[in-house]
Design a protein that fits this description.
The chain is an all-alpha fold. It has helices spanning 2-32, 49-55, 58-92, 97-104, 112-126, 132-157, 160-168, 173-202, 205-210, 218-229, 233-262. The chain has one domain (57-262): MetI-like (MetI-like fold). Helix 1 packs across helix 11 (233-262). The model has no long low-confidence stretch (mean pLDDT 77).
């Protein structure tokens, strides 16, 4: 009897914590479907008018396109560089591996605003502040540590004897990478890609300081609108779509991860 009571109390505590964590998201999503002209909860009528208004907003569409292109480019570069660095550190086992890992993960140790100010100073000297290449480089800087951490762990779990066996059977280095290393590292590549893209897409702090007037991303546009015009139903609908997009990316990435592990 005592054991059942303890399990019931533990389950109630877990559910209470989950409800506390998910309550803001639930409020945001439900309020986005409200038919009123101001933010209110609970909704007193259901409507899709604010989602339609968000899609018809030309500035938001432009910012969404910029965020998508920026996220894809920075993710491709960050994951590529992180994978090469991780493979070299794990397989090469250099004496300076610990120092290199610390350098790769350094952007995680300080607040983003500190890195943004430092990049802003460097960009001012190079003359690339407010440009797309500068913005991509900034996003690579903040996303690469996440990808590097995952890929170091991924390559560390791959048995090097499998690669050695392929070489002993006459496989070229490229064939070993293509047919042995990459398939085994695919789960880590998918995970690092999804996380890097989400970090890039949702960044506000670094992008606000680095981006120029011509490269306003989706989150920065939303934040600026909230700061100048306050909370309005259109912004709430946009926030709900961002949450839904994030959840879809996570679920899709998890599905691909499980599929790649089975293959």
């Amino acid at each position: 009897m005592t054991s059942r009571f303890s399990k019931a109390m533990l389950l109630a505590a877990v559910l209470a914590i989950l409800l506390f964590l998910l309550a803001p998201i639930l409020v945001l999503i439900l309020s986005a479907f409200d038919s009123g002209n101001v933010f209110r909860f609970p909704p007193r009528g259901l409507s899709l008018r604010w989602f339609e208004a968000a899609f018809n907003h030309s500035e938001y569409r432009s910012s969404l396109w910029i965020s998508t292109v920026l996220g894809l480019l920075s993710t491709a570069i960050a994951v590529g560089l992180a994978s090469l660095a991780a493979f070299g550190l794990v397989r090469g086992k250099p004496s300076y591996r610990l120092a290199m890992e610390v350098l790769l993960l350094a952007p995680l140790t300080l607040p983003l605003v500190v890195w943004a100010i430092a990049l802003l100073s460097i960009y001012a000297q190079l003359g690339i502040n407010g440009t797309l290449p500068g913005l991509i480089l900034a996003h690579v800087t903040i996303t690469m540590p996440f990808a590097a951490r995952i890929m170091i762990a991924t390559f560390g779990e791959i048995d090097p004897n499998l690669e050695a066996a392929a070489k002993s059977l006459g496989a070229s280095p490229w064939q070993v990478v293509r047919r042995i290393t990459l398939p085994l590292a695919l789960p880590g590549l998918l995970s690092s890609t999804a996380i890097a893209f989400l970090v890039s897409f949702n960044d506000v702090v670094v992008t606000t300081l680095i981006a120029g007037a011509g490269w306003i991303t989706f989150p920065v546009r939303t934040f600026s609108r909230l700061r100048t015009e306050g909370i309005d139903p259109t912004t709430i609908a946009i926030g709900a779509m961002i949450v839904a997009f994030t959840i879809l990316v996570i679920v899709f990435g998890q599905r691909l991860f499980q599929l790649s592990r089975r293959l």
